[in-house]
Design goal:
This protein is mainly beta. β4 and β5 form a beta hairpin. The relative contact order is 0.21. It contains no helices and eight strands. The protein has one domain: Porin (Beta Barrel). The termini are close together. It has an eight-stranded antiparallel β-barrel with strand order 1-2-3-4-5-6-7-8.
């Protein structure tokens, strides 16, 4: 089972250790809608589903940085009303070295992948793109990709 998704990065960055630590443990949250596109689309092009994810990470986010996802939770309300949810197990987010570099999602756009499971122990992945570096042109930041359950 696969679903395309898009959304806005509704970040609540919660640093858990002091300023100046390159590997501070932090948390953030994302929410959005489901659709059939391969790129970010506005809510008006949604198929009626929605999703949310909250995650914990260590590392340095942003241009030239990378983070390791260390856990979290996710939920997906399908257009037919079926709710799937469970733990976000592990993953990573990588940003390009500059605002003009492209690592597969567009210039200056991060790429992510995370392993997930459902509460019924179905394994899956969530992967895609996060545009959080062009805030002068794109606000709130955008996220899009694919959620796959086996």
């Amino acid at each position: 089972m696969r679903s395309k998704f898009a959304g806005a990065f509704l970040a609540v960055m919660l640093a858990l250790v002091g300023v100046g630590s390159a590997y501070a443990a932090s948390s953030t949250a994302f929410s959005g809608w489901t659709d059939a596109a391969n790129t970010w689309v506005p809510l008006q092009q949604s198929d009626g589903g929605s999703w949310t994810a909250s995650l914990n990470y260590t590392g340095t986010p942003g241009i030239g940085g990378a983070v390791n996802v260390t856990g979290g939770r996710w939920a997906w309300l399908q257009p037919n009303g079926t709710l799937r949810f469970g733990p976000l197990l592990r993953g990573h987010v990588s940003w390009p070295s500059s605002l003009i570099a492209d690592i597969g999602c567009g210039s200056g756009v991060a790429q992510f992948q995370a392993d997930i499971a459902t509460t019924s122990h179905t394994a899956g992945t969530i992967s895609g793109c996060l545009d959080d570096t062009h805030l002068a042109q794109v606000f709130p930041p955008r996220v899009w990709g694919t959620l796959s359950l086996k």
